[in-house]
Design goal:
17 strands, mainly beta, Jelly Rolls, 244 residues, two-stranded antiparallel sheet
């Protein structure tokens, strides 16, 4: 059953299940649980965590990060200025494929006074020819997803608000056919938006876009990040996430 709910100027579509298309079944492109960090002999401190897909996307954490207890295993807390990054590789660019990125996170402090949009996970910047990005809309503490390709850009905001409540949440930004969407704690919303091929030469970033500025810094905890490509990507990207 399909229903339409107005949110701002956009019409959001809700499904009992995400749309599926025939084609190549989804596989993980990258997966991080942050259970093991390997310190590096650098100043300021840095550490790496392995990509569990064995595809070699080693993630390097830098700046003011720390380890905390996640839902069932260690997680990473980001504070200004801190971020995690893995070098650019083509298999993190969805191009024209169905894809999804999922993040398990917790935010303990009120975000309503923030003036920017904290970055949770992204590949590509706003002005690049292609970008996928998960960020926070701080005034209502809602997850936003931005998709930009050769045919245009689309931004969608989850109707789930108040995620700055100190509770663990799971969020997914996804594209399937001509639909782009966001899922937070099992609640799906989507827009029709054919943005075209998405690709860029940037690193994949978690927590912030820069180590030179606190702008768009995510101040919270992240326990899981995964990206999947192919049909059914949304479900595959969440499959390894801890139970909440």
């Amino acid at each position: 059953m399909l229903a339409t709910v107005a949110l701002g100027t956009a019409a959001l579509l809700f499904w009992s299940a995400l749309p599926a298309e025939a084609g190549t079944p989804a596989t993980l492109s990258v997966e991080y649980t942050f259970d093991t960090l390997t310190p590096l002999p650098t100043s300021p401190p840095t550490a790496t965590t392995a990509d569990l897909t064995a595809r070699g996307h080693l993630l390097t954490l830098s700046g003011n990060y720390s380890t905390v207890n996640g839902p069932a295993s260690p997680a990473v807390a980001f504070a200004p200025i801190a971020r995690a990054a893995t070098p650019n590789k083509a298999d993190l660019n969805p191009v024209g494929r169905e894809f999804a990125v999922s993040v398990v996170f917790r935010i303990a402090g009120d975000t309503s006074g923030l003036k920017d949009t904290p970055n949770m996970a992204q590949k590509g910047f706003y002005g690049d020819v292609g970008q996928w990005k998960m960020q926070l809309k701080p005034d209502v503490a809602a997850v936003q997803c931005r998709f930009k390709g050769l045919s245009g850009a689309s931004l969608i905001t989850s109707p789930v608000t108040g995620v700055d409540d100190g509770v663990w949440h799971v969020a997914t930004c996804w594209r399937s056919g001509s639909q782009v969407g966001v899922t937070v704690d099992g609640q799906d919303a989507a827009l029709t938006a054919s943005v075209g091929d998405i690709a860029n030469t940037r690193q994949m970033l978690v927590g912030a876009k820069s180590l030179l500025s606190s702008s768009d810094q995510f101040t919270g905890e992240i326990d899981y990040v995964a990206v999947a490509m192919g049909d059914g990507a949304a479900d595959v990207s969440r499959a390894g996430a801890p139970a909440l």
